[in-house]
């Protein structure tokens, strides 16, 4: 996600607009002025005409770090959402490129009621997202995570809000979807895996079913995450949200329709995990103990909120934790009894291998 500072000419090319340099170097605009002139700003005047008094408000939780390369495209995709009532809460983790200037430029055109800009904790993307999730001054009906380098399909929020409104307000609810994969130039290169098994705590313990860039959740789910706090030792904010909502008896919906153009580029913190090369890399990391370390962190965090878990899910959590500490055969038997599963056959084979070699 992060992107090192670039020369002005690279910045222009990266957002897909080529400018001919007709003037001598001495007459060129300052770097930010040149960059600002080519940002394809989407104006909001037409959207303001929508009747908004009865439309639920969505708070978009956008975290940035060295975001200048793709941020404008993401902001424009938010502006063209068919669901008109939203506001962006942008938390920047210490960028020293033009990220702040881009955000301020859009705020100057869209208004302070559409974009507010804040400083993040500078402790990585997970901490940044959790700090936004737990801010008491963010008041909305629904909350959507947003990465800095993706492009939202125009009906992303509308699809999410339509499902979320079908769930009673007091029940924690989380929406996520499949993604369409694109390269740095927004060219289609594939899709994320299509999952068929229903979301559940048994799945959430060992796998995240949807990327945070697709997630939208209701106020009851946000309240759960706020009670858990922003200092939990979670691996990622989106996996944590999936575990918390399912573990505490909420509802999770996985939409097979891709709502986000998930950009794959050299600086992704987390990629799509597609292809045999990616699978080989995951096997290598499994053997090195990464999956075991992830489970250690997640179980520690879940134990901090065990009083909020349903009785059934507390039992599943305890059985899974105990199975991980036993000898190989009891470990395999305990894994089977918990019913913990991943979404694919290969994923479940990986679980068995992890149990066999004590990397669960």
**Shape label:** globular
- Tally of alpha and pi helices: 14
In total, the number of strands is 9
Strand content: 15-25%
Q: Which range best describes the helical content: under 10%, 10-25%, 25-40%, 40-55%, 55-70% or over 70%?
A: 25-40%
CA-atom Rg in angstroms: 21 Å
Sequence stretches where pLDDT stays below 50 over 5 or more residues: 1-28
The CATH C-level class name of the largest domain: Alpha Beta
Order of helices and strands: HHEHEHEHEEHEEHEHHEHHHHH
What is the CATH topology of the largest domain?
Answer: Spore Coat Polysaccharide Biosynthesis Protein SpsA, Chain A
What CATH architecture label of the largest domain applies? Alpha-Beta Complex
Please, what is the oligomeric state? single chain
Q: How would you sum up the major sheet?
A: 9 strands, mixed
**Which structural class is indicated by helix and strand composition?**
alpha/beta
Distance between the termini: 29 Å
Integer average pLDDT: 87
CATH homologous superfamily classification of the largest domain: Spore Coat Polysaccharide Biosynthesis Protein SpsA, Chain A
Q: How many discrete structural domains?
A: 2
């Amino acid at each position: 996600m992060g992107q090192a500072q670039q020369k002005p000419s690279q910045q222009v090319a990266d957002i897909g607009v080529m400018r001919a340099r007709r003037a001598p170097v001495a007459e060129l605009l300052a770097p930010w002025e040149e960059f600002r002139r080519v940002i394809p700003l989407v104006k909001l005047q037409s959207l303001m005409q929508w009747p908004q008094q009865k439309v639920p408000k969505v708070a978009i939780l956008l975290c940035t770090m060295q975001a200048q390369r793709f941020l404008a495209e993401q902001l424009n995709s938010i502006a063209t959402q068919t669901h008109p009532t939203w506001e962006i809460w942008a938390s920047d983790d210490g960028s020293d490129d033009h990220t702040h200037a881009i955000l301020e430029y859009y705020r100057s055109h869209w208004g302070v009621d559409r974009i507010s800009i804040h400083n993040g904790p500078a402790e990585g993307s997970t901490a940044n997202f959790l700090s936004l999730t737990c801010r008491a001054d963010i008041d909305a009906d629904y909350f959507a995570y947003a990465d800095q380098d993706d492009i939202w399909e125009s009906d992303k929020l509308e699809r999410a809000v339509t499902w979320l409104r079908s769930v009673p307000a007091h029940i924690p609810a989380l929406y996520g979807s499949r993604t369409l994969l694109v390269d740095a130039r927004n060219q289609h290169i594939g899709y994320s895996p299509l999952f068929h098994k229903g979301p559940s705590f048994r799945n959430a313990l060992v796998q995240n079913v949807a990327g945070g860039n697709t997630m939208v959740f209701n106020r009851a789910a946000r309240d759960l995450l706020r009670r858990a706090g922003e200092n939990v030792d979670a691996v990622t904010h989106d996996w944590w949200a999936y575990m918390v909502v399912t573990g505490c008896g909420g509802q999770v919906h996985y939409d097979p329709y891709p709502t986000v153009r998930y950009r794959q580029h050299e600086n992704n913190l987390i990629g799509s995990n597609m292809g045999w090369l990616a699978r080989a890399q995951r096997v290598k990391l499994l053997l090195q103990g990464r999956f075991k370390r992830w489970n250690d962190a997640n179980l520690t965090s879940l134990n901090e909120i065990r009083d909020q878990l349903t009785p059934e899910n507390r039992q599943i959590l305890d059985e899974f934790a105990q199975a991980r500490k036993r000898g190989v055969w009891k470990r395999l038997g305990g894994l089977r009894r918990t019913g913990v599963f991943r979404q694919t056959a290969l994923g479940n084979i990986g679980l068995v291998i992890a149990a066999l070699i004590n990397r669960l």
